[in-house]
Amino acid sequence: MNNNNNREPSSLGIVGFGAFGQLAARHLGKHFEITAYDPSQNVANVAQHLGVTLSSLHSVSQADVILIAAPVSSFENVVSEIADACNPGALIVDVGSVKVVPAEIMRRMLPNHVDIVATHPLFGPQSARQGIEGLKVAVCPVQGNRHAQVAAFLRKALGLTVIMTTPEDHDQEAAVVQGLTHLIAKVLLRMGPLPTRMTTKSFDLLSEAISMVQHDAPEVFEAIEKANPYAETVRRRFFDLAASLSVELEATSTTQPHNESGH
Amino acid sequence: MNNNNNREPSSLGIVGFGAFGQLAARHLGKHFEITAYDPSQNVANVAQHLGVTLSSLHSVSQADVILIAAPVSSFENVVSEIADACNPGALIVDVGSVKVVPAEIMRRMLPNHVDIVATHPLFGPQSARQGIEGLKVAVCPVQGNRHAQVAAFLRKALGLTVIMTTPEDHDQEAAVVQGLTHLIAKVLLRMGPLPTRMTTKSFDLLSEAISMVQHDAPEVFEAIEKANPYAETVRRRFFDLAASLSVELEATSTTQPHNESGH
Fold it and tell me: Could you tell me which residue ranges the Prephenate/arogenate dehydrogenase domain spans (chains A, B) (predicted)?
């Protein structure tokens, strides 16, 4: 991370070379010497294309900066293996969509001699298609003081809008932001193909919002709805309000059409 | 309506000078001599500003073209008064957000010597802020053959995208398009102020969609949800799918955070 820091980390180890790990490599390639670990055999081509050396989890964990972009299911196992292999002074960063649980896992399992910063880039391959400049990333200090360095890098080197926060504050807001978006998308997708002909501007916006999340892996939805300690409350609130609105609507008497409801 | 038609209608009577009646006057002023009727006393200034002469419902109903932009509650009464006052050969057009019920009312109550075209401009003052060019309007022939003339005018004179359809097809699609948009907006508005800080692109789109409909009059929501014969089915489907998703989510076991869920 070539900025104000006497130590000059030059090697980056990406743990989990899926959709987001690859997106990270694409944007960090000119700042780091990148190695990556992924259990899948299907990432060899894309790794080569991105100039990334695939290696074992152990050797990837010896990099100066370790980026954990591992899937839901293996997060805890991955962290424990990194804990055994990482070097003193290493900087360990995760990019999960929830922060309370992973921050707790990293703080508990990783050694005291490493710095830990929990982050959540508020974008994915879909929303990063036009580049990542100006997109948002949440940054939570977990251990050590290099969160300031990480924030400066994300801001200056990548042009991201950095939101410094805590895992708790992040998850509370994400429970609404991501929880509701994915919940509504899920319900609408189950309703089948949506109309495209007689659509209003507001419906077009709704459809676009859905199309951005509908291709996320099932684990994404699971993570957002289940691994966020605040998601269930928000979800129940949404379902309860929907249910009471449903009752109201069946109760009230039918009225005639109105003249101003185009948008 | 100054286009291919041996008869040259030059007077337009707008019945109901609310938000949409005023929007219509703003865009039709250079094509017609406009008079308008509204029971409210508060429209005098805007009428003067738009060069529209306010008059009685009876005299407004004697125009060559009568545009019904009356609120839900008074639609049927208004049509019966127009039926008594309108001239033979008049063209009567409504702009309600549902079409089956108003088309039936107009066909039943208006005389045979007038042409009737039911329309639904798929926009309102909000979405028309940047002008109406390219916006959509649904057009349903009801009585007579001047729907083609109306469609041509909307396309050529106003630059609108015209969708020729039937009241039934319109209401079926609108039940999803407007029914769902307003339903979701209603539920989210009841959840209180939405986050604006740690937002994703898809959530921003969702918020924008909501903001476009949240200022609609309560009658608009009522009309869309209650006066559309297909709305209840769509609504029940949405609520049922939401409920079953809710059950599934409480049932499944908690998982760990995932790495790619930013958008």
Answer: 10-263
Assigned domain for A148 exists: yes
Report the domain count for chain B. Answer: 2
Same domain? A74 vs A185: no
Residue type at A111 in one-letter notation: P
Query: What is the domain range of residue B241?
Result: 170-248
Give me Rg for the CA atoms of chain B. 21
Contact A260 B201 (CB under 8 A): no
In which residue ranges of chain B is pLDDT below 50? Answer: 2-7, 253-263
The pTM of this model reads 0.83
CB distance from A249 to chain B under 8 Å? yes
Q: Determine the Cα–Cα distance for residues B102 and B92; give it in Å rounded to an integer.
A: 12
Looking at beta carbons, which residues of chain A come within 8 Å of B208? Answer: 202, 205
Q: Are residues A111 and A93 part of one domain?
A: yes
A175 HSE (CA, 13 A, CB side) = 21
The mean pLDDT value for A230-255 works out to 83
Query: Is the CB of residue A168 less than 8 Å away from at least one CB of chain B?
Result: no
B237-261 confidence digits (pLDDT tens): 998 998 888 888 887 644 444 444 4
For β-strands B161-164 and B136-143, DSSP reports them as: parallel
Beta strand spans in B16-105 (E): 33-37, 53-54, 65-68, 91-94
Over residues A90-105, mean pLDDT: 95
Does residue A113 fall inside a structural domain?
yes
| A258–B220 C-beta distance less than 8 A | yes
Bridge partner residues of A106 (DSSP): none
Question: Which residues on chain A are in Cβ contact (under 8 Å) with B191?
Answer: 176, 180, 234, 237-238, 241
Nearest alpha-carbon partner for A66 in A28, A96, A37, A93: A93
pLDDT per position as a tens digit, B57-70: 999 999 999 999 99
Could B20 and A245 be called an inter-chain contact, meaning their C-beta atoms sit closer than 8 Å? no
Minimum Cα–Cα distance from B134: chain A residue:
A201
Phi, psi for residue B53 in degrees, rounded to 5: -90, 120
Assign A252 a pLDDT band (cuts: 50, 70, 90): low
Chain A residue with minimum CA distance to B229:
A254
pLDDT in the model for residue A127: 86
| Same-domain check for residues A184 and A77 | no
pLDDT in the model for residue B251: 79
Cα angle for residues A251, A257, A262 (degrees, 5° grid): 115
Two structure tokens written together for A22: 């690859």
- Contact (CB<8Å) A256/B76: yes
Could you tell me if B126 and B241 lie in one domain? no
